[in-house]
Every structure is written in C-alpha cells, then in structure tokens.
Amino acid sequence: MSGLRRVHALVLRYVLLIGRDPSRVVDLAVWPFIDITVWGFLTMYVNQTGTALPNAMAVFMGGAILWNVFLRAAQDAAVSFLDDVWARSVVTLFASPLRLVEFGASLMIVGVIKVVIALSVMGVAAWALYAFDILSFGPWLLPFAANLVLFGYVLGLVALAMIVRFGGRWQILAWSLPWLTMPVSSVYWPESVLPPSVWIMAQASPMNHVFEGMRAVVATGHMPLWRLTVATAENLGYLALTAALVSRTFRNALDRGALPKLR
C-alpha cells in the first residue's frame, strides 16, 4: 500500500502542476486544436480540388488525432522527468523511498490523463469545425489509442534514458525523437507508397500497423486483426527492452552520482 500511496502522491503532484501553469494548458489544449484546424483545412482543400481520395476527412483527421495521441504520450514521459530536472528536485525524489518502477508508473498514469485531455479537445474541435466524429472508428478507437500510447511511452523512456546517460544537453530528444518515427509510421499515407527498404523498416513500427488498420476501418469497416496483434506484440517487446534500459541507466547514474549534475 505504501507504494500505491507514493504513486498517487506523485501523480497528484504532476496533475496539480497542470492547473497552476498556463503554459501547460496551452500545450495540452491549444496545440492539438491548431493541429486539427490545419489538417481540416487541408482536407477541405483536397475535397474542393476534386482529388480522388475516398474518405479524405476520416483519413486525414483520424491520422492527425491518433498522431497527437502518440506524440502526447511520447513527449510527456520524458518532459515530466525534465520538470523535476529543471526544478532541481530529482535528487529529492530519489533520496526518498520512491522506487524506479513507482516513478515510471506515475509518469505513465499522468501521460494517460494528458492524452485523455488532448483527445477530448481534438474530438470536440473535429466535430464542431468539420462534423467529424472520432467515435466513427467504433470500438477500434481504444486499441488504436492504447497501442499508440504504449509506443509513445517506449520512445519517451528511451529519450529519458539518453538524457540521464548523456546529460541535459540531450533534452531536445524529448521533443524530437517521436518525429523521427514519422516517415516509417504511415500516418497520412499508405505503406504501399514507401520504398522497399523503408517498407521493411515500417513493419517494425507498431504505429505503421495502427495507421494501416485505421485506414482499413475507414475504407471497409473491418479491422485486419493481424495488424493489431503485431502492433501489440511489438509494443510489449519494445516496452520490456526499454524498461531494462531505463533501469540500467538509472542504476549507473546513481552509482556515478550523475543525477545531481543533470541540468
């Protein structure tokens, strides 16, 4: 029970920071709203030009919304840790009885809270501005979002591990690392347009299978279950490897006394 109380306390701390800092509200609500607005305008332009792209609204808007779900999870896993680095509270946290697994669990819970907030903003904006209902994906929306959140955690934790290992000058990875996966993720285009070498890399990306599955649902109303199975299996494998990486990196940092030197 003491472990659960520590997780609850840390989650509460991060959540309270959201309401007390206007910049965090902007990051959670304004940027997702702008993203939906931009992709909505692009979709309207595509429709007006008569381009033969069936279900363009669902493809582009669904892609934009699900991409932001992934991006939010990936960035928040590392940025929440950076909040403690900037506040010089990392040493205080890990000098307490808090265990690394509890710290990781709190980051994931806070990430889910932020994803739900951002998803709600984007869903309302898409419906109000373009009459697009995100619930049109039906029950598949939940496994889509869950897999994107899991892969987001993987990249966020990798960024966190690299920051701990190489120092604060690598903070840019918290924002840039998720974008490096976009070319092989088939967010706004089908995997069939990828060059053969890139197509092979795309098969190792859970996001590629999620977005291909999304387009299949839009086009046919049916989800190829093998896509969801592969995405989930890849995510679980990546998450296990990443957890081992983060654990080893933190142990080495604690042994070297590197955490107090993070800036």
Notable traits:
single chain; 263 residues; mainly alpha; globular
Molecular structure report:
The chain is mostly helical. Helix content is 77%, strand content 0%. The protein has ten helices and no strands. Helix 1 (2-20) packs across helix 2, helix 6 packs across helix 7 (173-180) and helix 6 (141-166) runs parallel beside helix 10 (225-256). The model has no long low-confidence stretch (mean pLDDT 84).
Average residue pLDDT = 84
Helix tally equals 10
Query: What summary fits the major beta sheet?
Result: none
Radius of gyration: 19 Å
Beta-strand content estimate: under 5%
* Helix proportion: over 70%
Report the end-to-end length measured between terminal Cα atoms: 33 Å
Low-confidence stretches: none
What structural class do the secondary elements suggest? mainly alpha
Q: Strand-and-helix sequence, N→C?
A: HHHHHHHHHH
What is the general shape? globular
| Strands, total number | 0
Could you give a short description of this structure?
The chain has 263 residues and is an all-alpha fold. The protein contains ten helices and no strands. Helix 2 packs across helix 5 (100-130) and helix 3 (56-86) runs antiparallel to helix 5 (100-130).
